[in-house]
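Action item from last week, closing it out:
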Amino acid sequence: MLKNRAGPSSISLKKADRTLLPLPDKKGSYVLILRNNTAQTIHVGRLGALNFREGFYAYAGSAMGGLSKRVSRYLKEIKNPFWHIDAIMPRFKLTNLWLFPSNIRQECQIARLLSRASDTPTIKGFGSSDCACLTHLFYFTDLKQTPLFLRIKEALDCEDAVEIYHETA
């Protein structure tokens, strides 16, 4: 089901539609918006056992090999965990995807924007072992998703940005 939420760059989908996503076949960066419904401890590779509060988490990543390929990974069961985010995906609910097509890696710029908007930097080193950022995972008690998406889209000057979200019951 397609639904206009924040202009023509928004797409709504139901869980059953996950394999039919019109993902851009371009390089770029992305944000996964995740909902953690209960406080829990999860083992995350070398970071060890980490405590996650109930609430929303935004994860900034890059897909210089292609957005479609990378993001499709998160829309199905992860069989070979590799990245930090792979450890929490099965325990959290994916609620939104924000795609920012670009030939330039922008995940660190997105992380800085998320950091300014978040309640607190979440976990030192999460998703940022290959850069100088403190983290690429940010915690929000409540997340006003569309305004934040639009602020990042404007800051990146990314006209092709797409917000994909699940309808809530």
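Closing note: The chain has four helices and nine strands.
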